[in-house]
Amino acid sequence: MKMSAHILGSVIAYIFGMFLVPMVIDFSRKEGLVDVPNERKIHTKPISRIGGVAIFSSVMLTFLSLILLSYYPYGSLLSGVLLGSSLMFLLGLVDDIYNLDAKTKLFLQIAIATLAYLLGISIHTLPFVGEIGVFSYPVTILWIVGISNALNFIDGVDGLAGTITTLAAITLSVIAITVPPANPIIALVGFILAGSMLAFLTYNYNPARIFMGDSGALFSGFLLAAISIVGIMKTATLTIFVIAPLVLAVPILDITFSSLRRIAKGKSPFVADSEHIHHKLIHAGFSQKSTVGILASVAIVFSSVAALILGNQTIRYFIIAIVIIVSIMILMNLLKYYLGAKK
Predict the structure, then answer these.
(1) Is the pLDDT of residue 256 over 80?
(2) What is the pLDDT of residue 343?
(3) Strand spans (E) along the chain
(4) Reduced to 3 states, what is the DSSP secondary structure of residue 315?
(5) CA 337 – CA 204 distance, rounded (Å)
């Protein structure tokens, strides 16, 4: 697959997203599908909570467009990635509308991750251990469900989850291309997700007009988990298994400390609170934009370390990709500020 397909995929996803996000905002307002402020939340007015609909739709419409343009994305394990992520999206959407209880959501997440495992999305080896046999299933389920929820956990500040997702998707995609054996199909998934997320972020940066909701967070989290398994965890070397946790360090650290803190207090790790990393930064006096900037910078540093570990080719592509993405994000914020000032 030529690099042009990856670029084309991200551009098409961005264009679809720019049309779809405003439509979802209008629809959710009319139907009352908005997130209402409370003592745990930072925003002060009702905001659309089904941004995942726009993210999911732009990703899937992009795949359809690539098929029509003869860039048909054949690839091993692609069916498991797309089906699993679609089911995660539907689960999140039902939760956004009907507010499912934590145990039901966890059970269904495990069921979806199990289906993905049966379709080949699996971790079979670990460093120092090699083949893990029957432990392949619990390790894979823990990774998929864990990363899916980790994205959901950090979705508490305007633009944070979307920014982390975009940076991680691009980094994982670059690694999937540059580390042998290359997996350009899985990299294409990441580039498409990044393009869709950039369009979403245009309306999600502070002050946000839309949130991604559980539908967007679970969908994006599942895709990142799947990309990291299929595109990176290809061998049992210690290096490879250090890379994915580095790229996803911000959401992994947040969900780990949040879960341990809640368990230590005798609470369920799935009961929401206002003590996440981003909440602590807000309480320390940082603005929402500063909080996103700080955590995005941390994510870039961890990802840079991962690129350095992997060598020159990965470093070169990584630097180019990050410079482009960060430049686009800065321009988006400047444009949003300029348009807001004119009004």
Answers:
(1) yes
(2) 47
(3) 34-35, 47-48, 125-126, 130-131
(4) helix
(5) 13
